[in-house]
Amino acid sequence: KQEVTQIPAALSVPEGENLVLNCSFTDSAIYNLQWFRQDPGKGLTSLLLIQSSQREQTSGRLNASLDKSSGRSTLYIAASQPGDSATYLCAVPWGGANSKLTFGKGITLSVRP
Amino acid sequence: DTAVSQTPKYLVTQMGNDKSIKCEQNLGHDTMYWYKQDSKKFLKIMFSYNNKELIINETVPNRFSPKSPDKAHLNLHINSLELGDSAVYFCASSRQGAGEQYFGPGTRLTVT
Question: N- or C-end of chain B: fewer Cβ atoms within 10 A?
Answer without folding.
Answer: N
